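From the pipeline queue, job 12 of 40. The input is one protein chain; the requested action is below.

Action: predict structure.
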Amino acid sequence: MENLKENPSDYDSEYLCKECGSLLYVKEEDGSDICVNKDCSQFPSGLDFYDPTESGSPQLYQELDTARAKLLSEMKRCDPTELALYIYEKRKALIAFAIKPGIMLSIPDLLSLGEFLMMLNSEPPNGNEQDKTLFESVYQQAKRLTKYLNFIDDLKEGRYIWIKGSGKPKALVMKYLNVISDMQKSYGLVSSASVKDISELFEFEDIQELVTTNVELAPGVDHADFLDSLWPYVLTLRYAFALNYRTAKQYRYECDASDVAALLSFFLSIPNNNTLIVPISNAERHYAVQPKAAKSFEGFLNEYVISGQKVPTMARAVDKIIMDRLTLLFFIIYLHGHYEVSGAKKTGGSTRIHKKKEETGRAFERHLRSKISEHGYEGPDESVSVKTFEYDIIKVSETKKRIILVDAKFRDPSPSSISAHTLIQQELLDPNQGLLAETKRQLDRLKFFNDNPEVFRDCLKLKVDWQEYEVRGYVVTKHVPLISRYKNIKIVSASDLLRSEL
């Protein structure tokens, strides 16, 4: 695990150890903070952890192998088509709930159903039993297996740490995981048990809607324009599928625009919301007439239907394919964003999704500027550029004799950074978008501002001498930041700025 190698007096953080700069963890039983860096003076004497790897905890993996063997034994009894249809319909019901209200109330179920459909491809049953009670029993076993595997993934990624000791193992939780949970709520990524008030969800929906264009999916409309209009939902799905490293790999398709067009053609060919079971030969004839398809039909099937490593978008039932409009739309939305992002990484280019995020950043800046003005601050209604410096927000309060300089950052932690191995590097130390680099740039802006007050007189129109004002520099983030101060720059979430800093 990395640590922040800065002078401890230069920064404040309730999520990092003040002594060594490593991530802090929380004891579940009493909420106390723990530094897990064994080289740190704050590391508790006598504390020891379980190794979550197969060599470190062989009994755990033996138990998982036993559970998987029992599951496969019961699966073999089932009629392959009826079991595939049963699992597919359960997933379809979840997708329907997710698309209509926009809230994924059971992400673990969604992930476990997708993984079970993969298992049906790699270990197809050959029985003839069609008892729904048996199907549900088999699924519940598969669901528990996925849950345990994802928890092991959490342990390997350092989101949780198991403490060695007598009795049942106790867990430490990465302290910053609470902030990640709040970020997930802003995308509707929650479990039903955690929703006490629907107003907790979609905190930034009004800002995202400012740059969302309504486009109807109709004949003659470019499907990319329609899918671009759903970009907030694309981001939601990317976060949902990347909550665990192992599940992220299951949704990492080799996708391009022609694949999305082919799936869209299947979507448009289905007359209603019923689930269809189509002979593979019929699907092949439909696929054959698609223009500019990059994959052979066999390649398309391997990627999206019959794989044992990637979650099927449509499900195989022996020599047939199960499909429906709602599930296809769900994956079309996700895959559009997936190929946009992955394609840009390969070419070094930008994407329409990225441009939408940039537009949202500017909307966030305007939102902050307006809210700050409501607190009695005055100043320019646009960003201010002076020489090589750009100031997102400059405002003055004559009542409080205070000038504030705000750098607005509307971004979420990358899904790949939700790991103890990468969080500090990606969120703080990245030289381009890391919070430390952004804050150092704001320090430079603050110094230039203080050294050259005459340059800013016209835009601020101060009523008394410059020396009468306190000047504060801020970096304002979408969510609670990993550090709250660097030198004399405060780093706060937008809600904290508006609630307690003005």
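Job complete. The chain is about 45% helix and 15% strand.
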